[in-house]
Amino acid sequence: MRSIKPFSLNLITFALLGTCGSAMAANFGIQNANTANIKTERYECKRCVEPQGYTGSVGVSAGMLDADDNHANNQFGTGNDGAVVGVNSDLAYQQSGYKAKVQAHQLGMDNGFVTMEAGKSGHYKFDVDFQTITTNQGSNAATNLWQNNGMLTPSEQTRTLDLALQRQRSGIGFEYDFSEVLGLGLSSYARYDREDKTGHRSASLTSPRPTNFAEAVDETTDKFSAGVVLDGANWVSELSYNGSRYDNNMGDLSLPYAYDVYSATPDNQAHQVSLSGQYRLASTVLSGRVVTGRMIQDQDLIQMSGNPIQNWDGQVDTLSSNLAASTRVSSRLRLGASYDYNKRDNRSSVFDFAQYEFNSMSGAFKQNTPMDIERQTFKTNASYRIASGYRLQAGYDYKQVERSYGEREETRDNEFWSKLNIRAIDKLTLDFGVSYGERGGSDYQANELTSDETESLMRKYNLADRKRSELNASANYAPAEWLTFDLRTYYANDDYNATELGLTQAKDYGYDINANAQLSTSLSVYAFAGQQWIDSNQSGDQASMWQTEINDEFINLGLGATYSGLMDGRLILGTDYLFANSSSNTGVNGFNTDSANVYGYGSYYSYNHSVSLYGQYLLSPQMAVKLAYQYERYFDTDSAAVTPDSIPGLITLGDLNHNYNAHQLMLTFSYKLK
Prior knowledge:
Layout: E1 53-67, H1 73-76, E2 82-95, E3 98-107, E4 112-120, E5 124-148, E6 151-177, H2 179-182, E7 185-206, E8 210-231, E9 235-248, E10 253-255, E11 258-262, E12 268-281, E13 284-300, E14 311-328, E15 333-346, E16 352-357, E17 360-367, E18 373-387, E19 390-403, E20 410-422, E21 428-441, H3 448-451, E22 466-480, E23 483-495, E24 502-518, E25 523-542, E26 544-566, E27 571-591, E28 596-600, E29 604-618, E30 623-638, E31 659-672
Antiparallel strand pairs: 1-2, 1-31, 2-3, 3-4, 4-5, 5-6, 6-7, 7-8, 8-9, 9-12, 10-11, 12-13, 13-14, 14-15, 15-18, 16-17, 18-19, 19-20, 20-21, 21-22, 22-23, 23-24, 24-25, 25-26, 26-27, 27-28, 27-29, 29-30, 30-31
């Protein structure tokens, strides 16, 4: 059967604000102030006047790229080896309330975009956009299977191609405000987006031996959203619709000796209707939202012996709601609470399937079981100002999830958290946070649908009992106007105390440091550093007991400077350096009656050096030319990537590890209108 593709649906999220006034004994409104003798021209804000006509800049970039591997395009975003040309702009127009804006970046290159907006303030707005995105997984992928009209044709000669995906995104939107026409706060919006994805990606099948091949991609996703917003003096509401449709233009794949050996991702669609609102009453704010949706997948299935289904009329109905309240009890204390409810009702068809025992039919029948999920979340919090510059926050979060026909039918999460914010120390701000949570629930493997299929002691980490402790702290220090420091550190520990087989413990900790200095009016520098460690332990049973320890480490370093004091300020020089390193190592300890054995899985390791140098020269107050050079050194090694002949009986796409140097030289000319 086909696998269900995750539905693509962008949900509109918004923050709703209301206002209200209070009765006063006397009217001290500013409209009643006596301004007859004030010479207002002395206090006129020159910068507050919005410029009329055209403003902004336009430019064109041209350059050369020299790279040993197309993976470098992920960093440079310009294209393959050779010359590249792109258009840049940041233009705006304003006249008598009418506004228009055009922004573009590297338009014409493999990764570029353009957006255009036009409208009249407080009345309507129209916008269109276009974007190209190219991602490269690897160059020179080796394959002896070629895809042609749904047929994977073996070839004695190994050929190479690039594993790359090209996306073209376009959209159009419109907003209209009826407030002035109808005399009430009513506005509307509508938007349509489309994405076309083409290229090749890695895929695998077994027929009869494991085979990796380059799958051709040609798919389209359409999204549509529309809504109306109605607001009053202290309330606001919105009714909206969101929909998406995914179409796969590639069909199932066959081999010359076996048909339909690889199932294509099925078409699907999703729809949602949402009603939300907010009301403000004195110092209390109430908000709510109700969303109902439906996801549909109805397409012919690959036919096989014993399968009575011609097509899968899959349907999942969703319902979610939210209620939230926040109130200011006093000048020091504020309380808040929220309740969320989500239900996923799988209404797909149910069929009878004949059951087999080894190679003979047992005569029994069993039905497929649509799985439903129901979630309820309750949160409460309090914020108390201890003294000027000191604020303490605390809260309690509870989540209950019920799953039908799952390994664990019910899980319950309880979490307590607290935060302390300090703003009373001169030039220093401090934030501290701590939380503790536990997850429990019903008996694991509680129903017969799963208990016979999985090792009875095995626990999935997202369903298993867990105790989680977390600490975090951050600080911002500005000892002088020209110097600032930022520091953040965190530590989290997950203890799966009831797991015998599976993930038993995981730790996640690290830090980030940033420094910025304006050494003079012309020279500014910055630097940052960050590290993260993720350590996890896993227990298993395969003939004998074994334990696995996985250590992941990430490092990010960077520094840069900008100097603008040359040639009477006409010449600006800058440089940036970035370094990133990541590694993952897995060690396995095996135990038996004779001795202890230690094994090691293959590791993953990668690093990246990136250096950029640029100089910008102002030819005139309106014209500038910029010359930029960028260098990247990239290396990675993954033991899972092997050559085609490394493992007998396994067909691979070759060694897709990367080890290259890349250079880019770019010249940009820009013209400023005002």
